[in-house]
């Protein structure tokens, strides 16, 4: 297994998005519902990979993808009244999957950290496919360190 660092891949980048919150996102305690947090993570990830990456010439990320694994560590309640910033980067790049880290920030503090393992699918067969060299290079731009299976 080859270990690539941010220096190998170029400057570490991240995708940021202010997430719109709705009154109906709150639970009985007045906090954003935990299931809604997962949806916000998905919205930011889809915007990044399907729109931003495509606008930079990487249209292959518009292909179908599935989430193979999802984990969320809730650190603090998320408030409806305060702006929520989602910061996305990459923690692992494999041959046929990659892990996206989603950090939710409110009032300068991390309120949750989530990870999703994403598997791209072949558009025709709807079966898992390998990442292309261009996709791997794109993802490594967003990785502090990422392991790439060789």
From TrEMBL:
Pfam families: 4HBT_2 (PF13279). It is an enzyme of class 3 (hydrolase). Signal peptide: none annotated. One of its GO terms (molecular function) is hydrolase activity. Keywords: Hydrolase. The keyword Hydrolase applies. Its EC number is 3.1.2.-. The keyword Hydrolase applies. Gene3D superfamilies: Hotdog Thioesterase (3.10.129.10). This is Acyl-CoA thioester hydrolase. The lineage of its organism: Bacteria, Bacillati, Actinomycetota, Actinomycetes, Micrococcales.
């Amino acid at each position: 297994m080859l270990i690539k660092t941010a220096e190998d891949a170029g400057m570490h980048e991240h995708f940021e998005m202010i997430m719109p919150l709705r009154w109906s996102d709150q639970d009985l305690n007045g906090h954003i519902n935990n299931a809604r947090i997962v949806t916000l993570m998905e919205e930011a990830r889809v915007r990044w990979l399907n729109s931003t990456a495509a606008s930079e010439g990487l249209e292959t990320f518009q292909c179908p993808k599935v989430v193979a694994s999802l984990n969320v560590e809730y650190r603090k309640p998320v408030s409806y009244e305060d702006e929520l910033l989602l910061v996305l980067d990459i923690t692992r790049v494999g041959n046929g999957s990659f892990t996206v880290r989603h950090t939710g920030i409110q009032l300068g503090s991390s309120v949750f950290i989530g990870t999703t393992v994403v598997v791209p699918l072949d558009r025709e067969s709807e079966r898992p496919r390998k990442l292309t060299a261009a996709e791997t290079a794109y993802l490594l731009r967003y990785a502090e360190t990422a392991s790439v299976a060789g």
